[in-house]
Amino acid sequence: QVQLVESGGGLVQAGGSLRLSCAASGSTISRYVMGWFRQAPGKEREFVAAIRRRGASTWYADSVKGRFTISRDDAKNMVYLQMNSLKHEDTARYYCAASQRLLLAASVSHLNEYEYWGQGTQVTVSS
């Protein structure tokens, strides 16, 4: 069992930056694929970014590519999402997720591939 707790959300102006953190406990995440998802009011939860074990590969949604960077520190059991050049449309609740599965690249964006989820942290970008 893995417990995930996100932090680092807040209110920021458009063009600004935030760094989200996801602290894992209960098990080492070194063998997990880790992902970030987000959900805006009235919308479905959507994929943002994912990172493979040992950071061997990363994937991003087209909407955040070039602006967001996912990283992990397995020694600290932490995952991060650096968000730059934030836009109003990035406003959402951001969730950290973990998957024990050997995900193919085509599967990392699928919510049902992730067994563990945090409670989320709110990001609000003012325009």
| Residue share in helix | under 10%
Judged by helices, strands and strand pairing, the structural class is mainly beta
Shape: globular
Radius of gyration: 13 Å
Unreliable stretches, pLDDT < 50, 5 or more residues?
none
The proportion of residues in beta strands is over 45%
Major beta-sheet overview = 7 strands, mixed
Cα distance spanning the termini: 39 Å
- Helices and strands, in N-to-C order? EEEEEEEEEEE
- What is the tally of beta strands? 11
Tally of helical segments: 0
Report the average pLDDT across residues.
95
What does this 3D model show about the protein?
The protein has 127 residues and is an all-beta fold. It is built from no helices and eleven strands. Strands 2, 4, 5, 6, 9, 10 and 11 form a seven-stranded mixed sheet that branches. β4 and β5 form a beta hairpin. It is globular and about 40 Å long. 35% of the residues are buried.
In short:
Helices cover 0% and strands 48% of the residues. With 127 residues, it is mostly beta strands.
List keywords for this structure.
7-stranded mixed sheet, globular, 4-stranded antiparallel sheet, 11 strands, single chain, mainly beta
Layout of strands and helices, then pairs:
Layout: E1 3-7, E2 10-13, E3 18-25, E4 33-39, E5 46-51, E6 58-60, E7 68-73, E8 78-83, E9 92-99, E10 116-117, E11 121-126
Parallel strand pairs: 2-11
Antiparallel strand pairs: 1-3, 3-8, 4-5, 4-9, 5-6, 7-8, 9-10, 9-11
